[in-house]
DNA sequence: AACAACCACAACCGCTTCACA
DNA sequence: TTGTGAAGCGGTTGTGGTTGT
């Protein structure tokens, strides 16, 4: 009974800089993947999930930190209208941004604004100064931009989910799009928005989201 | 100065999906 | 085809800084 190996307790809570350094060094040396062994072999007393999340959201190269630009913000709003809470998909269209960051930003900034119908003024100066009440708080890991990892291309693996979501996502998107004055034009897309329903089935549900995005010029 | 309330963000949890034997 | 472990995802909670009283 007692010969079971007692696992060391998994550490939780905020990551310390030295832990970041250990994880970063380890992943840069050995590569991503197999997160369960990363925590063991690196000596970090963290769960594999925690390591993966920390790497993905903060330590990975090309992570973009700091305030969202007006363009990014608009994109999030528009895509959320189309896709709902598909944060990984939305983040996939924002180079350097993570799903967690997009989700947090939505929940803290955009959600309430959209609910109240207010929009942030487009004045760029407002962007630098506005809402930076807490800006200096946690900006320790600033990096520059680039693309997301190729492995987790959410748009490809997303086909199966679509059917499940079609009732919630697609039923209103045309109305939303129209209300936002989008003009949909695509080689494979009928010009008339009303033509998206085939035999009671929303036509859009069978599309790859890529087509959807391209159609909106995103 | 002290404390409570508020806010933004980091991290965790549980479920789902994927990959592979 | 099926079982299993790893990875991914989204919702929720925790943490710590700022502001107001």
Automatic annotation (TrEMBL):
<dbReference type="InterPro" id="IPR017930">
    <property type="entry name" value="Myb_dom"/>
</dbReference>
<keyword id="KW-0539">Nucleus</keyword>
<feature type="domain" description="HTH myb-type">
    <location>
        <begin position="60"/>
        <end position="114"/>
    </location>
</feature>
<feature type="domain" description="HTH myb-type">
    <location>
        <begin position="7"/>
        <end position="59"/>
    </location>
</feature>
<feature type="compositionally biased region" description="Basic and acidic residues">
    <location>
        <begin position="153"/>
        <end position="167"/>
    </location>
</feature>
<feature type="domain" description="Myb-like">
    <location>
        <begin position="7"/>
        <end position="59"/>
    </location>
</feature>
<dbReference type="GO" id="GO:0000987">
    <property type="term" value="F:cis-regulatory region sequence-specific DNA binding"/>
</dbReference>
<protein>
    <recommendedName>
        <fullName>MYB family protein</fullName>
    </recommendedName>
</protein>
<keyword id="KW-0238">DNA-binding</keyword>
<dbReference type="Pfam" id="PF00249">
    <property type="entry name" value="Myb_DNA-binding"/>
</dbReference>
<dbReference type="GO" id="GO:0045893">
    <property type="term" value="P:positive regulation of DNA-templated transcription"/>
</dbReference>
<dbReference type="GO" id="GO:0005634">
    <property type="term" value="C:nucleus"/>
</dbReference>
<feature type="region of interest" description="Disordered">
    <location>
        <begin position="112"/>
        <end position="171"/>
    </location>
</feature>
<keyword id="KW-0677">Repeat</keyword>
<feature type="compositionally biased region" description="Polar residues">
    <location>
        <begin position="139"/>
        <end position="152"/>
    </location>
</feature>
<feature type="domain" description="Myb-like">
    <location>
        <begin position="60"/>
        <end position="110"/>
    </location>
</feature>
<dbReference type="InterPro" id="IPR009057">
    <property type="entry name" value="Homeodomain-like_sf"/>
</dbReference>
<dbReference type="InterPro" id="IPR015495">
    <property type="entry name" value="Myb_TF_plants"/>
</dbReference>
<dbReference type="GO" id="GO:0010026">
    <property type="term" value="P:trichome differentiation"/>
</dbReference>
<dbReference type="InterPro" id="IPR001005">
    <property type="entry name" value="SANT/Myb"/>
</dbReference>
<dbReference type="GO" id="GO:0006355">
    <property type="term" value="P:regulation of DNA-templated transcription"/>
</dbReference>
């Amino acid at each position: 009974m007692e010969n079971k190996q007692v696992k060391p307790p998994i550490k939780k809570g905020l990551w310390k800089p030295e832990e970041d350094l250990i994880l970063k060094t380890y992943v840069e040396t050995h590569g991503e993947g197999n997160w369960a062994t990363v925590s063991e072999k690196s000596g970090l007393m963290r769960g594999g999930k925690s390591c993966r999340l920390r790497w993905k959201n903060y330590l990975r190269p090309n992570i973009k930190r700091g305030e969202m630009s007006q363009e990014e913000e608009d994109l999030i709003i528009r895509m959320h209208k189309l896709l709902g809470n598909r944060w990984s998909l939305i983040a996939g269209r924002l180079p350097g941004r993570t799903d967690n960051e997009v989700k947090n930003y939505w929940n803290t900034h955009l959600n309430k604004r959209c609910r109240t119908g207010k929009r942030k003024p487009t004045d760029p100066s407002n962007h630098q100064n506005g809402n930076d009440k807490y800006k200096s708080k946690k900006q320790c890991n600033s990096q520059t931009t680039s693309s997301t990892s190729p492995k987790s291309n959410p748009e490809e693996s997303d086909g199966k989910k679509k059917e499940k979501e079609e009732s919630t996502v697609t039923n209103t998107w045309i109305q939303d799009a129209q209300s936002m004055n989008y003009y949909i034009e695509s080689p494979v897309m009928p010009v008339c928005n009303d033509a998206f329903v085939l035999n009671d089935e929303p036509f859009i549900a069978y599309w790859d989201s890529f087509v959807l995005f391209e159609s909106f010029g995103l």
